[in-house]
Amino acid sequence: MIYLDHNATTPVDPAVADKMAWFLREHFGNPSSLYPIGRAVKDLMNEARERVAGALGVDRGEIFFTGSGTEADNFAIFGTLEASPDRNGFVTSAIEHPAVIEAAKALETKGLKVTYLPVDAYGQISLDDLRSALTPKTGLVSVMHANNEIGTIQPIAEVVRIAHERDIPVHTDAVQSFGKIDVDARKLGVDLLTVSAHKIYGPKGVGALYVRRGASIRPFLRGGRQERGLRAGTENTAGIVGFGEAVHVLQDKGRQERARIERLAEALKRGVEERIPGARFNGHPENRVKSTLNFAFPGLEAEAVLLALATKEIYVSTGSACSEESDEVSHVLTAIGLRPEIARSSIRMSLGRSNTDEDIDVVLRELPEIIRRLKSISAFHPEG
Ligand code: PLP
User: Which one of 55, 221, 337, 374 is at 20 to 30 Å from 381 when CA atoms are compared?
Assistant: First the structure.
């Protein structure tokens, strides 16, 4: 199989699987227990916390483990706004992941004022739009670091500078940038930052929120005193230990792998552009996570392309994994100005560690043939 959907999820690194299997066999204690088998688990969790913190350039005490990237996003948004009840404004972008967009919609139903910053044809927000959206009542700005569908990177450090001048905290969803570009929370200057383990060859069902020391936040989940009182619920201990190991592997071989993956992605991009007439690249030419490639094949349905590729055991996506089961047109592709029929003809290929030079050769052999065949069928059945 050729897996080109690493933005949806990544295969668990063998070192992560080994570490988790060892942990599950050897450690069952509750990290809240004060006797040795509980303390041992707490120590292993703190080792993982140290690794996540180190990779993000922050202190261990600023990392809070959650049950997913989605939960970390919700925690950041609801937790921060609840901590400043005198402020009723939330500013975000039009191309956020549903974990943020749906939280924003929920805020609107509660009567908060939400601004969705528009993006240009490449998926970038305008800093002038941001300036005009901010008011003394704005309680939080949340703009994603890199987009999951088209890879566009937002100017987060500038967003922070503008918001902080007005004393407004900033959250960024770094789920799709972590591991693919440098993510240093201190250099970005953000107050809150989300990451998720399963996008960096770790397990599913575990994420983390960086909360800058001194930032005001309330718990999102109510219950016990886990995670220093900010995230209730017995921790996904094996998941957290696996997350730590995934970060360890990332720091060990991530940079080298990143260069290799970017080279493969560039070869794939060039090949598609050269060999498929009419293929249209969606996204920023430069300011983009290079392993994410989104192409429209005008005149075709993306789903037909996806299914034809799947018969060759080549797996791609028609957008974010979360919208795969609905007929809705991608809000990201709509926001960059694509007409619905062009958005519906778009597929995403996201590369990662599992890919090889040979994979790219195979895709560049199969994909042009599939597109040619589908186009000849749709020309024969113009209504279909
Ligand atoms: N944010 C972005 C940008 C994502 O791509 C994803 C996952 O697709 C999430 C948040 C949600 O992370 P999780 O799957 O851990 O809930």
Answer: 337
Q: What is the pLDDT of residue 380?
A: 64
Among this protein's residues, is 305 annotated catalytic? no
Q: What is the mean pLDDT of the chain?
A: 96
Instruction: Clarify whether residues 156 and 96 are in a common domain.
Output: yes
Q: How far is the CA of 70 from the centre of ligand 1 (A)?
A: 6
pLDDT in tens, 118-136: 999 999 999 999 999 999 9
**Assigned domain for 130 exists:** yes
Residue 383 lies in a domain: no
Mean pLDDT computed over 158-165: 98
CATH number at residue 106: 3.40.640.10
CA 10 – ligand 1 centroid, Å:
12
Are 236 and 281 contained in the same domain?
no
Which among 114, 322, 362, 374 is annotated as catalytic? 322
Share of the chain above pLDDT 70, in %: 96
Q: Is residue 384 part of a domain?
A: no
Q: CA-CA distance, 198 to 206, in Å (whole number)? A: 8
Query: What is the 8-class DSSP label of residue 298?
Result: T
Neighbours of 137 (CB within 10 A): 14
- 243 and 265 assigned to the same domain: no
Looking at the structure, tell me whether residues 302 and 332 fall in a common domain.
yes
Q: How open is the CA angle 144-145-147, to the nearest 5 degrees?
A: 70
260 and 210 together in one domain = no
Q: Is the CB of 74 under 6 A from ligand 1?
A: no
Distance CA 69, CA 92 (A): 17
* Strand pairing report for 207-211 and 192-196: antiparallel
Domain boundary among 233, 249, 265: 249
Domain that holds residue 144: 14-249
pLDDT above 70 (res 117): yes
Ramachandran class of 64: left when φ > 0, alpha when ψ lies in -120 to 50, beta otherwise: beta
Read off the pLDDT band of 327 (50, 70, 90). low
265 in the same domain as 232 = no
